[in-house]
Amino acid sequence: MSASLTGRIALVTGGSRGIGAAIARTLADAGAAVAVNYRAASAEAAAVVAAIEAGGGRAMDIQADVSDGAAVAAMAEEIAQRLGPIDILVNNAGIAPIRGIEDLTEEDFDRTIAVNLKSAFLCTQAVLPGMRARRWGRIVNISSGAARGAGAVGLHYNASKAGLEGLTRGYAARLVKEGITVNAVAPSLIETDMVRSGIASTPARIPLGRFGTAEEVAQVTMMLIGNAYMTGQTVALSGGMAFN
What is d(CA 34, CA 27) in angstroms, rounded to the nearest whole number? Predict the structure, then answer.
């Protein structure tokens, strides 16, 4: 894996903390230069970059609202200038405002779809021309068990993640002959601030008896990046709560 990613350039959206930060660090450990995207958490993103550089890796932090097309285009251009053209894209940015049917607003719904789903479309469109020209690319979308289950966040979140998995299959089918794979990881109840703060205070309903870790999500992400034969798939990571 280390040799295969040496010289590769990766972008991780929402890479300042949690799952995104773990993926960014793991990509750097495997030899990739990593762009750590953030929207507001500048200090956290800088800390991820500093940790990568302290380990001898190359990284940069870059601010962009990935639900905005112009911001995404400018981000991709700056990464290409500073690190090189993007070979690996991890669409991890997401929000999870907890809402019931009664208090879910149109603004909540639109913003969740924009950040969780539209952003993956915008970032993928931005990196695809270069990947297609080089006939090599790896795209991994971070979905959720909520794409296929009831979930605890709300129907807006379900819809955004189900759409993300449909987007994954659609791109995979159309890029399969061009050396570009597109897959998804669907974690459930990973020990992050988002989970602890409102979705699940304890791991009582997880058969394995504990929360998953961000590093375990990163391991699955790296497996998908390293496997040239696997495309259009969603890998569930749920501690035994659900089975495909």
Answer: 7
As a whole number of angstroms, the distance between CA 100 and CA 28 comes to 39
In the set 38, 157, 171, 229, the catalytic residue is: 157
**Catalytic annotation on 157?**
yes
Reading the block at residue 229, the tokens are: 């034969």
Q: Read off the pLDDT of residues 80-136 as tens digits, 9 standing for 90 and up.
A: 999 999 999 999 999 999 999 999 999 999 999 999 999 999 999 999 999 999 999
pLDDT surpasses 50 at 48: yes
Lookup: tokens for 220? 């699955």
Is the pLDDT at 2 greater than 60? The verdict is no
The amino acid at residue 27 is L
Q: Quickly count: other Cβ atoms within 10 Å of residue 52's Cβ.
A: 23
- 10 Å CB burial of residue 106 (0-12, 13-18, 19+) is exposed
**Reduced 3-state DSSP string for 39-52:** CCCHHHHHHHHHHH
Strand-pair category, 9-12 with 180-187: unpaired
Q: Are 178 and 155 in contact (CB under 8 A)?
A: no
DSSP designation for 211: -
Both tokens of residue 53?
């550089």
Pairing mode of beta strands 59-63, 234-237: unpaired
Six-digit token string for 146 = 């909520």
Q: Which residue has better confidence, 26 or 199?
A: 26
Q: How far is CA 17 from CA 42, 49, 104, 140, in A?
A: 10, 11, 27, 17
In CATH terms, the fold of domain 2-237 is Rossmann fold (3.40.50)
Q: What is the mean pLDDT of residues 139-146?
A: 96
Is residue 243 very low, low, confident or very high in pLDDT (cuts 50, 70, 90)?
confident
